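Input record, target 12 of the design panel.
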């Protein structure tokens, strides 16, 4: 595991009403959700980044109003064509 340090103003924690540990956890989840939404990472990798199981990550997506299905229309058509 790699540790990454970032500097943030002290006011960030109080404005979000989170202690530093809660803030870091939420930041990991938010980043993973956004990268998943943009198609940058798979669902499994996003769950790993977020520090969640895949099922926990899928449940978390609804909180961010992001669909757990990230298919383009063409990908969905191809998937459906292969179902026999």
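The sequence produced for target 12 reads:
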């Amino acid at each position: 595991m790699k540790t990454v340090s970032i500097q943030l103003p002290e006011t960030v924690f109080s404005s979000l009403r989170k202690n530093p540990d809660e803030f870091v956890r939420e930041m990991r989840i938010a980043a993973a959700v956004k990268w998943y939404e943009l198609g940058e990472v798979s669902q499994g990798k996003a769950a790993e980044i977020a520090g969640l199981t895949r099922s926990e990550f899928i449940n978390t997506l609804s909180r961010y109003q992001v669909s757990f299905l990230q298919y383009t229309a063409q990908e969905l058509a191809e998937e459906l064509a292969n179902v026999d």
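The helical segments are 11-15, 20-37, 43-50, 54-63, 73-81.
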